[in-house]
Design goal:
Pfam families: OCIA. The protein is mainly α. It has 4 helices and no strands.
Length: 92
């Protein structure tokens, strides 16, 4: 944004008669923000993939069933939870 302001100030870019350098500086800021976000996508994805195994139990990922709290017998046997190892309180 500072470079764009300098280019407008020195006459390399024409200033808008009504708004001055604001539209060009704003566009430069938006493009810079977008390019910065796009360049960081791979780093962010690699961080989430490194935590993939740890975050599964916390409700992350496409395989997580948000409605099942592993309280039914079918879910307990499917996920290998025994009655003693379950952290859910009993309903009886």
């Amino acid at each position: 944004m500072l470079v764009t302001q300098g280019l407008v100030h020195h006459g390399y870019l024409a200033a808008n008669p009504r708004f001055g350098s604001l539209p060009k500086v704003a566009l430069a800021g938006i493009l810079g923000f977008g390019l910065g976000k796009a360049s960081y996508i791979r780093v962010c994805q690699s961080k989430f993939h490194s935590f993939e195994g740890q975050l599964r139990g916390a409700g992350f990922g496409p395989g997580h069933n948000r409605h099942c709290l592993l309280t039914c017998e079918e879910c307990k046997t499917k996920h290998g939870l025994s009655k003693e190892g379950s952290s859910q309180p009993s309903t009886s």
